[in-house]
Design brief:
Blueprint: E1 3-9, E2 16-27, E3 30-38, E4 44-52, E5 58-65, E6 68-73, E7 78-83, E8 90-95, E9 99-102, H1 106-115, E10 124-132, E11 137-155, E12 158-169, E13 175-181, E14 184-188, E15 191-196
Parallel strand pairs: 9-10
Antiparallel strand pairs: 1-2, 1-15, 2-3, 3-4, 4-5, 5-6, 6-7, 7-8, 10-11, 11-12, 12-13, 13-14, 14-15
Length: 206
């Protein structure tokens, strides 16, 4: 069960945004990721709880950020309920999308579990509902994912397989690289892996 810490920063000007302390593990029904976020000064900033089924679909999502809350799941596409900081107003939403995304590295791992790409596969397009800080406002985004390469790196715990993805934002054409080993993001725009207490989990081959 990997445990560790990511630092999150603005991908454009590198302003520190938060530290995300996480643990994650594959299980009999899929994969689960839980984390708590703190501000650069150490204050509580939010939390993430994401569970995927064996096909990589989000069966439960609970996000907290700045007293806003979103609960969601893969139902008729994806469905969610967003609650304001007072807890008085809750709005429901639904979109014909494949998954959720947001600032947490958990969402990048979740996409790779959903797509199961190999280096020979063509780029795959998918639609996601983005829930981004600070108020978790939902918006639909279209992305294209391609697995450019897969390399094994020697480590003290044996070979570590690192996948390099190219992600394209289809609304702007912006492209960026994401490096993932098992269920841990090694690097991506706005994300740095600062600490890892145990090796990434290896997902079963399909």
């Amino acid at each position: 069960m990997p445990r560790g810490r990511y630092s999150l920063h603005d991908p454009h000007d590198h302003t520190p945004l938060a530290e995300e302390h996480f643990q994650c593990a594959p299980g009999p029904s899929g994969w689960r990721y839980v984390s708590r976020l703190t501000t650069p000064t150490g204050d509580h900033h939010g939390s993430v709880d994401l569970a995927l089924d064996e096909l990589g679909r989000p069966i439960r999502l609970e996000l907290h950020a700045a007293d806003w809350q979103v609960r969601g799941a893969a139902i008729d596409g994806v469905t969610w309920v967003r609650t304001d900081p007072t807890g008085v107003h809750a709005t429901e939403g639904n979109a014909r999308a494949h998954a959720f995304t947001g600032t947490s590295p958990a969402f990048l791992v979740a996409v790779t579990r959903l797509l199961r790409l190999t280096p020979s596969d063509p780029a795959t397009r998918l639609r996601m509902v983005a829930l981004t800080d600070p108020v978790l406002a939902p918006r639909t985004v279209d992305q294209s994912w391609a697995l450019l390469g897969r390399e094994a790196h020697a480590t003290d715990n044996g070979p570590l397989t690192v996948d390099e993805y190219q992600v394209t934002a289809l609304d702007t054409g912006e492209q960026y690289a994401v490096h993932i080993a098992g269920d841990v993001v090694l690097s991506a725009p706005g994300i740095e892996l600062e600490d890892l207490e145990s090796p990434p989990s290896a997902f079963p081959a399909h």
